[in-house]
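[retry 2/3] Endoplasmic reticulum oxidoreductin 1: previous attempt timed out, resubmitting with same input.
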Amino acid sequence: MMKVRSGALVLLCLVVFSVQLERLCGQHVDDAVCVVDDADAANADVIQVLSNLVKTKYFRTFKVDYLRECPFWESDFQCGIDGGGACHVSECDDAEIPLIFQECKDVPASPWGRVIPEAGVHGWADGDNGVWCDCEGSDAVYIDLLKNPDSFTGYSGQDATRVWMALYNENCFGDTTSIEEQCLENRVFYRLISSFHGITTMSICKDGERLDMFKWRLAMFPDRLKNIYFTYLVLINAATKAQETISAMDMSVGTAEDVKVKEFIDEFYAIDGLAELAGAFNFDDIKSISGLEQEYMHKWQNISRVVDCTGCEKCKIHAKLTLLGIGTGLKILFSDDSTDLSLKHNEVIALFNTIYKYSESVALIHDWLDFLVSQEEETESTQLETDPVIEELGAADGYGPAPDSLVIPVMLGGMMLTGVLIAGLKHAGRRGRGRGEKKSQ
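[retry 2/3] Endoplasmic reticulum oxidoreductin 1: success.
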């Protein structure tokens, strides 16, 4: 009976998986006026421009405090055994730090992290409690992101799961209804966290092209994929709104590369279809809600503190980079006027690196889904019980069992199909016994 039931569940899982993959294509991004296919088309140009931009000296130099202790619980800060030292961080020495960063001095910050114009702009100031993501503590150092790429380090287990649980459970709005039934501002915040979780998983999948992990952790859940698209649109919206401020910033590091940086920025803003992507989600629908900016900021600050509990130095750096990037996007979108906006070097660096992370994920989702859909024999690569290696990697991204919305239909459908198969076997058995009795007579 167990074999029959397992077989039934495998068949039903195949049906559900196939439907999920087909449904994503041509669908609208939730809470946005944009079809996935349109985002894919424009993203081809976005990823090409940003892949060049983030390699420049200015945009690959990030200031971060990755040694800050966890404020919520004791952590052993141990990377996975299989990481092979992959958690190690290589810091910039003085000669590698661009002079423009070394000369920046702290400047006072006004509430909400906006730099006071009279004091100067674009500094590396720590600011006050109004910053969206506090990456620059007293022990902050400069990191070359190219020398410390985002990749699978082996960090996993209960420690990683605990961090993800805290991100979800301690930073929600207390609404226990389904995401579709929640108000827009709650849905937006949840989609931002979900997408942060999703691109973390995508970075693990990308490192080694772990297509099976992508399939089981993301592809079977279209909402997780579309949340990545949603945040991608939010970030494009923010970057577009801040175009005047960003284009006027001094990004010179004193090399011939300075001209290229300016060209890449101009190319980005000239991308065909960028304005349409930027207008796909109207942030004005929620920015006017009284007290929402403070609430969003407080929760985002708390998330950045939870990340300090991550037991992997390199993982922490890229998590803080992404959180600062999204936080900077929110800061821009909550601002009243782009002309009244001041941004620090670290914020702009994080914003564009984060857009690139999402752009990479969007491109991979497009390519990998196309590949999976085009597989001629999907059953050969699908199992009810995932491979142990996939389970181990899955622990690194913090995703637990499938949500009830998927598990319950699969279980009910499996039991129904199992019942049909069992009934058929019993009927066949009775027919066999009947033939045997007649033959003996």
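[retry 2/3] Endoplasmic reticulum oxidoreductin 1: The first helix runs from residue 2 to 24.
[retry 2/3] clearing retry counter.
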